[in-house]
Write a structure and sequence with these properties.
The protein is of the alpha+beta class. The protein has nine helices and eight strands. The chain is globular and about 60 Å long.
Length: about 280
C-alpha cells in the first residue's frame, strides 16, 4: 500500500507499545488551515461533552462558554463549506478503493455510508449551524462580556445569574438543544479527523540529541503530523513544518517557572505523517 492510501485494511502496525502497559500521549501538528480549524472545533466539542451534563452553575458556564467559542469559529470561517469540500474529497478517495482486494470491504462500505450521510445533512438547504445561538438574547449578552476579565460576574449580568441558578432540569435541556443544532458540524469534524488520522501508518523513529528532521515530498498534500510518547516521558515535542520538511525538537521543562530547553538525550517515539 502506497503512502497516502487510506488505511482501510485489517493490518496492524508492526510496532508494539512504547512502554508495556503504559499510557501514550499524542501531540498533533496541523499542516494546513483547514485541519487547524477542524482540530480547534474538535477540542471545543470534546470540552463541552465533558461539562454539558454537569449539574452545577460552573458546569453550565463552561459548556455555554464552549458553545460561544464554536459560534465564533463558525462566524469567522465557512466551516460548513470547508467540511463539505473535505468530506467530498475523502468520499472520492475512498470510492476509488472499491477495486482494491486488500481493503476491508465492510469497513470501507461503513466509511462511505457515514460520509454520504453527513454530506447530505450538511448540504441540506435549511441547515444553518449556530443560527439559534446567534439569535439568542442571553447568549449575545454573555458573549459581549466574555472579553472582559470577570465580565460575566453576577452584578454584570443579573439575567445570566438568574438563569444559572435555575434548576438543572431547566438549564440542561436548553444547553443540549443548543448543542444539537451543531451536531451535524460536530459529526463532520469527527468523521473528517478520524479519516485523516487513520490514513497513516506508525513509524518508530529516534530523535538524536532531542532533534529530528524529515523531508516532505513536494507533490504530496500532507495534512497532519502526529507524535506519540509515553505519558511518563518528562519532555514534549515542538513541531515546525514547512513545504519541504518538518523538524521536531524535544523539550524539557522541569518547572513551569523556567523556559523549556531541548533535551540532550536521544528520544525514541512513534511518528505518523497523515496524508489523505
Amino acid at each position: 500500500m502506497t503512502s497516502g492510501t487510506p488505511r482501510l485494511t485489517a493490518e496492524q502496525s508492526d510496532y508494539g507499545p512504547l512502554t508495556e502497559g503504559g499510557a501514550i500521549t499524542t501531540y498533533e501538528q496541523p499542516l494546513n488551515e483547514r485541519v487547524r480549524v477542524l482540530l480547534r472545533l474538535e477540542h471545543l466539542f470534546l470540552f463541552i461533552s465533558e461539562r454539558i451534563s454537569g449539574f452545577s452553575e460552573w458546569d453550565s458556564r463552561a459548556a455555554l462558554g464552549g458553545l460561544i467559542d464554536i459560534t465564533d469559529v463558525l462566524w469567522r470561517s465557512d466551516i460548513k463549506g470547508e467540511l463539505i469540500k473535505e468530506l467530498e474529497r475523502h468520499l472520492a478517495t475512498f470510492s476509488r478503493l472499491r477495486s482494491n482486494p486488500h481493503v476491508d470491504c465492510h469497513r470501507l462500505n461503513e466509511t462511505l455510508l457515514n460520509h454520504d450521510k453527513t454530506l447530505k445533512s450538511l448540504k441540506h438547504p435549511g441547515y444553518q449551524p449556530g443560527h439559534t445561538l446567534r439569535q439568542d438574547e442571553l447568549i449575545n449578552a454573555v458573549k459581549q462580556r466574555t472579553a472582559i476579565p470577570g465580565g460575566t460576574c453576577n452584578f454584570d449580568l443579573p439575567a445570566y445569574h438568574y438563569w444559572l441558578n435555575r434548576p438543572s432540569s431547566h438549564r440542561l435541556p436548553r444547553i443540549h438543544g443548543w448543542l444539537d443544532e451543531l451536531s451535524v458540524i460536530r459529526d463532520g469534524v469527527f468523521l473528517a479527523l478520524h479519516a485523516i488520522r487513520d490514513s497513516a501508518y506508525t513509524t518508530r523513529v529516534a530523535a538524536l540529541g532531542g532533534f529530528y528532521q524529515q523531508s516532505l515530498e513536494p507533490t504530496v498534500a500532507y495534512q497532519l503530523i502526529r507524535v506519540q510518547l509515553p505519558s511518563v516521558a518528562e519532555l514534549f515535542p515542538e513541531v515546525s513544518a514547512g513545504k519541504h520538511r518538518f523538524t521536531i525538537r524535544f523539550l524539557e521543562q522541569p518547572e513551569t517557572s523556567t523556559r523549556p530547553a531541548q533535551t540532550r538525550n536521544d528520544v525514541e517515539f512513534d511518528l505518523q505523517c497523515c496524508i489523505l
